Amino acid sequence: MLSYPNFSFDISHSDQKSRARVGTLKTPHGTIETPNYIFCGTKASVKNLSPYQLKEAKTDIILSNTYHLILQPGSDLIEKMGGLHKFMNWNGPLLTDSGGFQVFSLGEGTMANEIKGRKKGHENKNLLEISEEGCVFRSYVDGKKIKLTPESATEIQRKLGADLLMQFDECTPYHVDKDYTARSMEMSIRWGDRCLAEFERHNNGAQGLYGIVQGGVYEDLRRVSAEYTKDRPFFGTAIGGCLGGSDEEMYNVVDSATPYIHPERPVHFLGIGRMRDVFTFVRLGIDTFDCVIPTRLARHGTALIKGQKGETINLSNAKYREDQSPLDERINVPASQEYSKSYIHHLLKAKELLATQILAQHNVATINTLMREVRAAIRDGSLGAHEKEWLGE
Predict the structure, then answer these.
(1) Do the Cβ atoms of 210 and 164 come closer than 8 Å?
(2) Which strand ranges, in their side-by-side order, compose the sheet holding 145-148?
(3) Domain boundaries of the chain, sorted by first residue
(4) What is the pLDDT of residue 114?
(5) Confidence of residue 310 (pLDDT cuts 50, 70, 90)
């Protein structure tokens, strides 16, 4: 039986009014408390932030994307350089995805919205073939054809050396029908078994593998996929794929899956992470989130602010031109406390890169503060009050 001797997940507190819980997730590179937020270091770098700045913002865990690292610089080089932790100079827990989402959705960014349900009809020109064996896609870097299978995706992640790995799966877009979604889910189940077999062949206790719940917006398919992950020896469970075209559909997707997953394993929600999402989905039993939102907003001049309706302010707006107040003195990092909104507004207008660096660290620190307060609120039963305080409602 597959085991994970250097990993554990222990639930220390369960909310009386929901499925929310506080846990401790142990990995070979450190132990974190959950619920927690995994920041996206897509190409082995969290955009505009050094590992020191991430630690200064009290970041516990980050991720990198297998798909992008296959294309540049390649998993063999990263393995030769000592693995992602050493390569990035990040000594905390680290997660990698399998590359499946990017292969089936992004190409170079074309279909992510359709996968999540926000748009319809985009053609993914980089995906050349999907079969039982795996998929073939064209590199957006140099145009080469690359084949990715459950076995190779697992082997690549082994070489990258992250603590937490994801099974290879197909992410179906929003517009496909239930029959296609069902066939895709069944293939992802078979792919999951192949990932487990490949993982077990090289398992040395240094990594833990997550199974992924697929099934699109169909509640019965989500249940089947969730029960599959429960019945297999994965370390953790992730919820991924198409999440619908509205917040209500996304809620129903997760609500239909979480009662059937393994109750004692960590649960990750792939690619979702607005402030309001954190409050909504910790109540459904989600332990970790990942999303590009904190650093992507920063690159567009936008700051996450506790208690702000809509969650954000845009420092490019003229109203901040003479605003001497800092971003948020409640957030304990220099980026939040030591630069005026007027100065950041100027930097944005002057197209100075320091602006996005300040905003990125502020946004990361704000999310980390949010997660610490969410954990405390679950412990003392005040999640509802904290939600109103954070969302300005």
Answers:
(1) yes
(2) 127-130, 135-138, 145-148
(3) 8-122+149-291, 299-391
(4) 41
(5) very high
8-122+149-291: what fold? Answer: TIM Barrel (3.20.20)
Residue 121 in this model has a pLDDT that exceeds 50: no
**Active-site residue 380, yes or no?**
no
- 97, 163, 169, 277: which is the annotated catalytic residue? 97
For residue 171, give Cα distances in angstroms to 69, 184, 289, 293, 342. 19, 8, 18, 20, 43
Tokens 């610089």 locate to 73
Question: Does the predicted model carry a pTM greater than 0.90?
Answer: yes
Single out the catalytic residue among 277, 287, 290, 328.
Answer: 290
Structure tokens at 108: 């170079």
204 neighbors 137 (Cβ within 8 angstroms): no
* Annotation marks residue 247 as catalytic: no
Amino acid of residue 56: E
Rounded distance between C-alpha atoms, residue 133 and residue 371, angstroms: 40
Whether the CB-CB separation of 113 and 124 falls below 8 Å is answered with: no
Mean pLDDT over each residue of the chain, to the nearest integer: 94
* Residue 124: predicted pLDDT: 66
- The answer on pLDDT for 108 being more than 50 is no
Q: State how far the Cα of 344 lies from the Cα of 315, in Å rounded to an integer.
A: 7
Name the packing angle between helices 354-380 and 383-391 (round to 10°): 160
